[in-house]
């Protein structure tokens, strides 16, 4: 606490350092409120009583009203901003462009190149005395004759210039990516709204606009954006684990513990709170400021180094639902790794990078060794020279040249453009997916979605419109198939019905007039309750007078709806001192609690078990079979003396009198059946997991096309599912789940724990050869564990709670199932874009490495010079990644099955293309290298001495090489063996402009590049031959497409060879250690692919930062329970 007291000064807004400013405007200072919010339970109540009398007194001092809230006057809000600060925690400062440049310079490959270039530069200025030069052999002969020895510095300078280009491109890419994520972050922040009372009206405002003195309405599923004091609460339970580390839910009430803290989750109930601290003065803000942004950044980096992708998963601990939490805990203890494993593509790319990096390193080392040995043997053994001191700089210059060639081979071998392609493809997709109503919170989720094999979807709101309407009812012993006339219902029953619906619903649920004349009335709040309120209006009654007569404060006791109760009950006190309980819920569950039912005269009569069975058969099942949701509304009168034991819910909510059973229709969204058909065609199984009755669920599933008559499928209820998957000891067995899930299509009356069990069971299953990739939709707080466990968690943007959104990977801004299909399309497009780029990149790499290696070994010089290689490597890679990663998706992507986790990244067809085009290019280049001078009747460029001028011979080789890559880039647009490589090329203007732009720059380099690029200008005839060979790539592509991949058994090995370690275990969840080993190898410095991994890591870092800022909550408290919980606790004591 001493530490906090010392730093307390830092937290006040301008002008409030000594509290004097706030004293003028309000009777409470920031300091007093901060001290108050640090207390809990009885201490807090005592402090409120001593200082302010009661909460009402505090409210008055803050010039607010517990019933009407603030006036909303801009001047008043501005005063509050000045006095108490804004509800905003400043984000960490973004890295400056110079910092990003410095980071890009840390790349090991670039450092080696810089060193080599500087040595080369230094030695080029050394001119040994002329006489001794002859004794050093013919190392510089020719250069002198051309009078160009003084141009030796150009190569070193050109390499340094190329390095500068690489660094600037990398830094600019990182900078624009950070900017993009900050934009995404602010979009998410703007979308987060909270319900407050202003001028007596309940309105939703952006979280950042909340001020001290606001009266906020908290409800199930909210993530509290400010600190506050509870004024009135119904059965409120809060998960404070994000601040205290304690997983048990804390019960809050105005009488016992009214302190509510920002960053905590409402797990049950509802209430109203007075906002007492916002932004950096809230408990969340205090901890943020105590830790300091700098420290957080350091911590973040360290953690990222330890577990590159794990950070995302650890930000939110799984929510402790009855069993789900324990399951997650057991898993954590067992594997000791974060839950979210690497995405399919990331895992494959990491392995591929390790392979290529090792190969490149070996090739470059061998190149340098062969060159040095050849030079030494040739100079000192064959020619019999002796090493003279004055010749040392000349020899060293040769060795530096060899070293540069070696590094060049390595630079070309390592696919630098690959991480750039991944970044561009993902960033491009994320931006476009926003237009398709997918707000992506974790970048890799977008790509994982392309491999999804199963989707477990909610019914209400996702498959259906979530516009509830009562269409049938059973009232007064009559089953009405349309809305009855009020005259057909006894006045007593009608009065009870209106009261039961009006009072026993959240007062935030209401029906508002339509926005446009003749439109549908607006449903605000819980859609089921809106359906019931609509029923009251259809009966020509009004619910508002009832609510005005019995305002929310007068509700005596509320048992809020949760997934265990599947019902909601409200108790009111009647004028004679007795109590009345109204209850509504799932019809089968409620009828078991009913002992009476209202007859045609509105009088209660006995309701026996056999009557109940009759009711289920005659009323509930027919309604359910029509796809209606059945809800029972009931009441019970309780004596006031002695007052009932309200905490004994089982005794209170029993012996009820049934008023009515209603059938609520929630129509299937018109676009859903087609979307589900697309999923099934794309090899994705859709399963419906719902809390509804099994008959309703089955009827809706049939309408959606999830189940078809005559198919072999299973539809079961949650309790049957649990019975069939557990052994005699009640433990879940994977073998039992494996017998059910492949045929399961509908899981009805399921709890969130059942959903979690099903998702985990499918993911862990080994029944099918391919490990299943599961997507899950969820909207409730208790869906958290299932959303976390799934490979991709979709939260509902409209109906979803903050907790569900926090646990998800993608938010569906329109709550529509067809948006999930778009996510699948984009995901597959990302995977294909990376595959296209790989196909192109690896062809370039294979050819360039072999040419540089064999050329160096045979002619003691690489036909492609270091600067030319850097042009090929940097510009072609960067441009190609931009061109191939921005291809828009097409419907054709949904016509094939998912690739699967264990399929190699390089398919058989791709391998055929890479090797086929590689062979073509190598034949052409080696032909030009060894007999090119005779074909074109020009001087040979082979065995040229140091610093000799550029030759036409080697320029033709360089030009032909680049043009072949350009035309092969067009071939690379297709990876499944399609013949028409130009199909849809004009729908991607980026691709066209990049191909033409690269060609234009190539002309400039060849004709005017001169010494820096080692190019001699070519004439028209030579250009036409180069172009002719380039276009030959397209024709050769058609020849390759004719060869069936299956006929090339040798390729199978090659394709799979890039995927080591997969056979050790189909399941990457169990096999994460193996990926980590690969990463450790990368980090040892054996492989120069750091820049790529840094880019991917930076993405994760950005996601974390915007995710954290989205709710201004302390994920660091959760990420490392051992250290940080302690910090949180200290700040709370």
From TrEMBL:
Ranges where the Cation-transporting P-type ATPase N-terminal domain occurs: 49-125
Coiled coil: 1061-1088
Gene Ontology MF, one: ATP hydrolysis activity
Location of the region described as Disordered in the Swiss-Prot/TrEMBL record: 320-339
Pfam family, one: Hydrolase_3
Basic and acidic residues bias: start-end ranges: 327-339
EC class: translocase
UniProt keywords, alphabetically: ATP-binding, Calcium, Calcium transport, Calmodulin-binding, Cell membrane, Coiled coil, Ion transport, Magnesium, Membrane, Metal-binding, Nucleotide-binding, Phosphoprotein, Translocase, Transmembrane, Transmembrane helix, Transport
InterPro entries tied to this protein: ATP_Ca_trans_C, ATPase_P-typ_cation-transptr_C, ATPase_P-typ_cation-transptr_N, ATPase_P-typ_cyto_dom_N, ATPase_P-typ_P_site, ATPase_P-typ_TM_dom_sf, ATPase_P-typ_transduc_dom_A_sf, ATPase_P-type_domA
Spans through the membrane: 361-382, 402-428, 914-932, 952-970, 990-1010
Gene Ontology CC terms, in alphabetical order: glutamatergic synapse; plasma membrane
Compartment(s) where it occurs, according to its Swiss-Prot or TrEMBL record: Cell membrane; Membrane
One of the GO biological process terms: regulation of cytosolic calcium ion concentration
Reaction equations catalysed: Ca(2+)(in) + ATP + H2O = Ca(2+)(out) + ADP + phosphate + H(+)
Membrane topology term: Multi-pass membrane protein
Similarity comment: Belongs to the cation transport ATPase (P-type) (TC 3.A.3) family. Type IIB subfamily.
Reported function: Catalyzes the hydrolysis of ATP coupled with the transport of calcium.
Protein name stated in the entry: Calcium-transporting ATPase
Provenance organism: Cynoglossus semilaevis
Classification lineage: Eukaryota, Metazoa, Chordata, Craniata, Vertebrata
């Amino acid at each position: 606490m001493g530490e906090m007291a010392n730093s307390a000064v830092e937290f006040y807004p301008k002008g409030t350092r000594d509290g004097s400013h706030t004293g003028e405007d309000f009777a409470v200072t920031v300091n007093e409120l901060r001290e108050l919010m640090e207390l809990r339970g009885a201490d807090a109540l005592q402090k409120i009583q001593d200082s302010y009398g009661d909460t009402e007194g505090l409210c008055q001092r803050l010039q607010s009203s517990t019933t009407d809230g603030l006036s909303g006057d801009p001047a008043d809000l501005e005063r509050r901003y000045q006095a108490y600060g804004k509800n905003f925690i400043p984000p960490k400062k973004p890295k400056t462009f110079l910092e990003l440049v410095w980071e890009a310079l840390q790349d090991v490959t670039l450092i080696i190149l810089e060193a080599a270039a500087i040595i080369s530069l230094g030695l080029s200025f050394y001119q040994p005395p002329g006489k001794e030069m002859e004794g050093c052999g013919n190392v510089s002969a020719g250069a002198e004759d051309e009078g160009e020895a003084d141009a030796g510095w150009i190569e070193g300078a050109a390499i340094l210039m190329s390095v500068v280009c690489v660094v600037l491109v990398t830094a600019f890419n990182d900078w624009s990516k950070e900017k993009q994520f900050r934009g995404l972050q602010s979009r998410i922040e703007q979308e987060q709204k909270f319900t407050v009372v202003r001028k007596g009206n309940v309105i939703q405002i952006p979280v950042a606009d909340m001020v001290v003195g606001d009266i906020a309405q908290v409800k199930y599923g909210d993530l509290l954006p400010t600190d506050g004091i509870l004024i009135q609460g119904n059965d409120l339970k809060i998960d404070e684990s994000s601040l205290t580390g304690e997983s048990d839910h804390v019960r809050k009430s105005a009488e016992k513990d009214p302190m509510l803290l920002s960053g905590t989750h409402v797990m049950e109930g509802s209430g109203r709170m007075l906002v007492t601290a916002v932004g950096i003065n809230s408990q969340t803000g205090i901890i943020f400021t105590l830790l300091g942004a700098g420290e957080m950044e350091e911590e973040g980096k360290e953690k990222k180094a330890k577990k590159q992708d794990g950070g995302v998963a650890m930000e939110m601990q799984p929510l402790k639902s009855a069993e789900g939490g324990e399951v997650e805990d057991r898993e954590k203890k067992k594997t000791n790794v974060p839950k979210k494993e690497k995405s399919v593509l990331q895992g494959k790319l990491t392995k591929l990078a390790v392979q290529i990096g090792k190969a490149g390193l070996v090739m470059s080392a061998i190149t340098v060794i062969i060159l040095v040995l050849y030079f030494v043997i040739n100079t000192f053994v064959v020619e019999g020279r002796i090493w003279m001191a004055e010749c040392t700089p000349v020899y060293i210059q040769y060795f530096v040249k060899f070293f540069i060639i070696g590094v060049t081979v390595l630079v070309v071998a390592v696919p630098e453009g690959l991480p750039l392609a991944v970044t561009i493809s993902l960033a491009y997709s994320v931006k476009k997916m926003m237009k398709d109503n997918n707000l992506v919170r974790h970048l890799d989720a977008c790509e994982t979605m392309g491999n999804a094999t199963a989707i477990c979807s909610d019914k209400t709101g996702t498959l259906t419109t979530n516009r509830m309407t009562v269409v049938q009812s059973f009232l007064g012993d009559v089953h009405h198939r349309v809305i009855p006339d009020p005259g057909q219902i006894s006045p007593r029953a009608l009065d009870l019905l209106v009261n039961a619906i009006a009072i026993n619903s959240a007062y935030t649920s209401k029906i508002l007039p339509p926005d446009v004349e003749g439109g549908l009335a607006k449903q605000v709040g819980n859609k089921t309750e809106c359906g019931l309120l609509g029923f009251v209006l259809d009966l020509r009654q009004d619910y508002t007078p009832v609510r005005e007569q019995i305002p929310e404060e007068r509700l005596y006791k509320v048992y809020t709806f949760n997934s265990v109760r599947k019902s909601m009950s409200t108790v009111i006190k009647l004028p004679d001192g007795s109590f009345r309980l109204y209850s509504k819920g799932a019809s089968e569950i409620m009828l078991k609690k009913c002992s009476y039912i209202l007859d045609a005269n509105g009088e209660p009569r006995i309701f026996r078990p056999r009557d109940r069975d009759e009711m289920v058969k005659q009323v509930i099942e027919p309604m359910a079979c029509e796809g209606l949701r059945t809800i029972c509304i009931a009441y019970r009168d309780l004596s006031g003396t002695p007052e009932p034991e309200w905490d004994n819910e089982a005794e209170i909510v029993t012996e009820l009198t049934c008023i009515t059973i209603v059938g609520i229709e929630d129509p299937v969204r018109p676009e859903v059946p087609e979307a589900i058909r697309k999923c099934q065609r794309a090899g994705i199984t859709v399963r419906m997991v719902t809390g509804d009755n099994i008959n309703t669920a089955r009827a809706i599933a049939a309408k959606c096309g999830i189940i078809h008559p005559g198919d072999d499928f299973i539809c079961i209820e949650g309790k049957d599912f649990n019975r069939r998957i557990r052994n005699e000891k009640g433990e879940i067995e994977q073998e039992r789940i494996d017998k059910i899930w492949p045929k399961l299509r509908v899981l009805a009356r399921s709890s969130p724990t059942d959903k979690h069990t099903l998702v985990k069971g499918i993911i862990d299953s080994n029944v099918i050869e391919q490990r299943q990739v599961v997507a899950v939709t969820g909207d409730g707080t208790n869906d958290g564990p299932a959303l976390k466990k799934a490979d991709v968690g979709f939260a509902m943007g409209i109906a979803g709670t903050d907790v569900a959104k926090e646990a998800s990977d993608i938010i569906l801004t329109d709550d529509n199932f067809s948006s999930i299909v778009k996510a699948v399309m984009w995901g597959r497009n990302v995977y294909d874009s990376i595959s296209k780029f790989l196909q192109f990149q690896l062809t370039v790499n294979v050819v360039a490495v072999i040419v540089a290696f064999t050329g160096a070994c045979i002619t003691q010089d690489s036909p492609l010079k270091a600067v030319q290689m850097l042009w090929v490597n940097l510009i072609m890679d960067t441009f190609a990644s931009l061109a191939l990663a921005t291809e828009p998706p097409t419907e054709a992507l949904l016509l094939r099955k998912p690739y699967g986790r264990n399929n190699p990244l390089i398919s058989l067809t791709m391998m055929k293309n890479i090797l086929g085009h590689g062979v073509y290019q190598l034949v052409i280049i080696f032909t030009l290298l060894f007999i090119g001078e005779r074909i074109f009747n020009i001087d040979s460029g082979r065995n040229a001495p140091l610093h000799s001028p550029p030759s036409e011979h080697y320029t033709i080789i360089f030009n032909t090489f680049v043009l072949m890559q350009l035309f092969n880039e067009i071939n690379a647009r297709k990876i499944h063996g399609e013949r028409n490589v130009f199909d849809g090329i004009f729908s991607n203007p980026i691709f066209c402009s990049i191909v033409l732009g690269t060609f234009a720059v190539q002309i400039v380099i060849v004709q005017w590049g001169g010494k820096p690029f080692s190019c001699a200008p070519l004439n028209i005839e030579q250009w036409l031959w180069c172009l002719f060979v380039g276009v030959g790539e397209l024709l050769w592509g058609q020849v390759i497409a004719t060869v069936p991949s299956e006929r090339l058994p040798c390729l199978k090995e090659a394709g799979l060879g890039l995927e080591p370690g997969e056979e050790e275990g189909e399941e990457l969840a169990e096999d994460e250690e193996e990926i980590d080993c690969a990463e450790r190898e990368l980090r040892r410095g054996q492989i120069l692919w750091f820049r790529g991994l840094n880019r991917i890591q930076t993405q994760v870092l950005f996601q974390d930062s915007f995710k954290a800022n989205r709710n201004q909550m302390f994920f660091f408290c959760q990420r490392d329970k051992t250290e940080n919980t302690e910090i949180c606790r200290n700040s709370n004591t």
